[in-house]
Design brief:
CATH architecture of the largest domain: Orthogonal Bundle
Structural class: mainly alpha
Strand content: 5-15%
Radius of gyration: 24 Å
Order of helices and strands: HEHHEEHHEHHHHEEHHEEHHHH
CATH superfamily of the largest domain: Winged helix-like DNA-binding domain superfamily/Winged helix DNA-binding domain
Number of domains: 3
CATH topology of the largest domain: Arc Repressor Mutant, subunit A
Helix content: 40-55%
Number of strands: 8
Largest sheet: 3 strands, antiparallel
Number of helices: 15
Shape: flat
Strand order of the largest sheet: 1-3-2
CATH class of the largest domain: Mainly Alpha
Length: 349
């Protein structure tokens, strides 16, 4: 098997040294070392990841992508494939801190409302002695008992507060927009196998753990779907707005607000001067979302609308750069940023 080149090592080192990276950041590094845009050279990008993972598999590591379930953004990171959370979180934390983390993630994934979060008070009230291995019936008959470690008993409230801050800083946990405690990007990346082994409910669309998800309106149905998966599924032209499990109507309305309206009419044109062909929707979607968000954060409504309209299988036409600039400014205000004149520009209607 050929050895990894310096380009592969650079990608691995970037993820190891900087932690999980947003897809846009990782793509930028990839383009910097290879000279190829991963959006336009998706096969090359996948080949790099495959080759890296073949080598990392020998030490039970993997370069993996995941979505942050609270905002739908994609991240990449190098993860440990061993299933237990102790090996995931590493030796940086003490045994009581790891037990505290385990108690938090168990409480979060058991949330029946699908919010994927618990209050700060609930997190601080988690009892570490619940993480001590239980005694089996045969052991009880033999008079055996399990003592709670002294370190668990002495783990104070102030230590819990400090540990929570460390978990958030290290991105094992996060603060949700409503001020609660949720899973961080590193947990979504590293605990995929843990979710599976602990029978965490999965999204009916992508089959990943549905920690933060929308629930079927039928209380007797267990179907969960991530919000971003729901938008993608129901934004398709002929998609029925019903639960895939019980077939009951699923309340859904496309996000409204200032957004981009994309014409579904298929046209093929060429730019008069450059002769460049129309670019595909995937590249437009990633370029526009990245450039808009890199200048000024889009509102959740704007992002939802962009995600929805960009999932249609359409092609869009070239047009004059200044006209697109004016259109975006009118539709989205100061957050809109036009694509570079060197990139294919699109007709929006």
């Amino acid at each position: 098997m050929p050895e990894l080149t310096w380009k592969h090592h650079t990608l691995i080192q970037a993820l190891l040294s900087r932690g999980p990276l947003k897809a846009e950041e990782f793509h930028e590094i990839f383009e910097g070392v290879t000279g190829r845009n991963p959006g336009a050279h998706e096969q090359l990008f996948n080949e790099y990841l495959l080759k890296i993972n073949k080598e990392l598999s020998y030490i039970q590591f993997e370069l993996r992508g995941c979505r942050n379930q609270y905002d739908g953004k994609v991240f990449y990171g190098v993860v440990n494939n061993v299933a237990d959370e102790q090996s995931k979180i590493g030796t940086h934390y003490t045994v009581p801190q790891i037990a505290f983390y385990k108690g938090i993630i168990e409480a979060i994934v058991q949330d029946s409302a699908g919010q994927g979060s618990i209050s700060n008070i609930d997190a601080l009230n988690i009892r570490l002695d619940n993480q001590v291995p239980t005694v089996t019936e045969s052991q009880v008959q033999d008079g055996a008992s399990v003592a709670v470690p002294t370190a668990f008993k002495n783990f104070s409230l102030s230590q819990k507060e400090k540990t929570l801050d460390e978990f958030v800083k290290d991105r094992w946990l996060c603060f949700t927009p409503d001020g609660k405690i949720g899973l961080g990007v590193r947990s979504f990346l590293d605990l995929r196998s843990w979710f599976h082994h602990n029978d965490v409910a999965v999204c009916d669309v992508c089959n990943e753990a549905a920690v933060k998800a929308e629930l079927c309106p039928n209380e007797g149905c267990a179907v969960r779907i991530h919000k971003y998966c729901l938008i993608k599924k129901f934004s398709q032209r002929k998609a029925e707005k019903v639960c895939p499990g019980c077939n009951i109507a699923w309340p859904y309305s496309p996000a409204r607000g200032r957004g981009i309206r994309v014409s579904r009419r298929v046209e093929w044109v060429e730019m008069e001067k450059s002769g460049k062909k129309v670019m595909n929707m995937k590249r437009f979607r990633s370029t526009l979302l990245y450039q808009c968000s890199s200048q000024s954060p889009l509102s959740s409504v704007q992002v939802d609308h962009l995600e929805a309209v960009c999932d249609f299988e359409v092609r869009i036409c070239f047009y004059h750069f200044e006209m697109l600039h004016i259109f975006l400014r009118r539709r989205m205000g100061p957050t809109a940023v036009c694509c570079s004149p060197n990139h294919p520009i699109v007709t929006l209607g």
